[in-house]
């Protein structure tokens, strides 16, 4: 964290605008890369891939060998935390994650005291990555934000409307608060350990910050994220933090102001003009190309990439997609996008 080498991505996180914005790609290690699919066959399942440092380091490094990206993101998943707390988590091929959904008794049976021991291999991966990465590359650690992780823990799988978790939070407020407390505390320990192991910055993935009224947004999203930022900075002063509240829409500004994150990740449905006019000018923004434009390529991709670059050229900006890259993405389109961003130079 205190190296003298210039890391364009870390500098931007800390509020220094760069003429050419640094870039990385959410989910940059993954199934669109043949070498990822190859390495994946060496683990018996997806969780084993996450918990085997040699393999996790290899897949983390793969996208950086192909593309001139400014950051590597630890290869892991947001659902290693429920797994570490003792909940049953499985990744079915082609189906995504499946968990044994928690009820009130299940929440009482979680074992926070075993979580950090269980996550030790992930921290070993972080240490190895720091040693393997060139010093100018930023290493990003992460976890799921509590509400997003809770939607999987309570619902048992991903869902378009988070119905099960939203209903549980309203019907069983005490049990829900207990679950959020466990996730806040575990996330602080986990992110602090990642920063201590060599991560330069951490990202909170709040992928389901949508479908919530004012009151629930404050309780489920803002307050737990704020507590993590505060708790982490008590342990590690000035810890650099990216918040990505996907779908927060009109709540983006309150999220930024109440949590105190350094960088606001914006999804692709957020209007560029809204970001320009509604967010504090000193906060860095990260985003926000529609991953589908990267699948299609050509003018559909290039015109919007340029619109994003110019809309955010007067503030600290980290170029990224507005959600994760998808398996259908042609590698040649990623190469073209990286060239386009790297050859961009904003007029000061
Ligand atoms: O088959 C496979 O190989 C598994 C596919 C896969 C991968 C490559 C999953 C299952 N997770 C990951 C890695 C991953 N997940 C990373 C590290 C890789 C990188 O960024 O380069 C990260 C940061 C995540 C984060 C993650 N996992 C989120 C938050 C980001 C987002 O996309 O919203 C979420 C919601 C998950 C859960 C999850 N894990 C995997 C899948 C398919 C899903 C989504 C399930 C759903 O649709 O609800």
From TrEMBL:
Main location: cytoplasm
Keyword Cytoplasm: yes
Domain Uroporphyrinogen decarboxylase (URO-D): 22-31
Catalytic reaction annotation: uroporphyrinogen III + 4 H(+) = coproporphyrinogen III + 4 CO2
Biological process (GO), any one: protoporphyrinogen IX biosynthetic process from glutamate
Protein's pathway: Porphyrin-containing compound metabolism; protoporphyrin-IX biosynthesis; coproporphyrinogen-III from 5-aminolevulinate: step 4/4
EC number from the UniProt entry: 4.1.1.37
Site feature location: Transition state stabilizer: 77
Keywords for the protein's UniProt record, in alphabetical order: Cytoplasm, Decarboxylase, Lyase, Porphyrin biosynthesis
Localization of this protein: Cytoplasm
Domain of life: Bacteria
Binding site for substrate: 27-31, 77, 152, 207, 323
GO MF entry, a single one: uroporphyrinogen decarboxylase activity
GO cellular component: cytosol
Short name of one Pfam family: URO-D
HAMAP family per the UniProt record, alphabetical: URO_D (MF_00218)
Subunit and interaction comment: Homodimer.
Listed PANTHER family: METHYLTETRAHYDROFOLATE:HOMOCYSTEINE METHYLTRANSFERASE RELATED (PTHR21091), UROPORPHYRINOGEN DECARBOXYLASE (PTHR21091:SF169)
Function: Catalyzes the decarboxylation of four acetate groups of uroporphyrinogen-III to yield coproporphyrinogen-III.
Membership in a protein family: Belongs to the uroporphyrinogen decarboxylase family.
Cited NCBIfam families: hemE
Protein name: Uroporphyrinogen decarboxylase
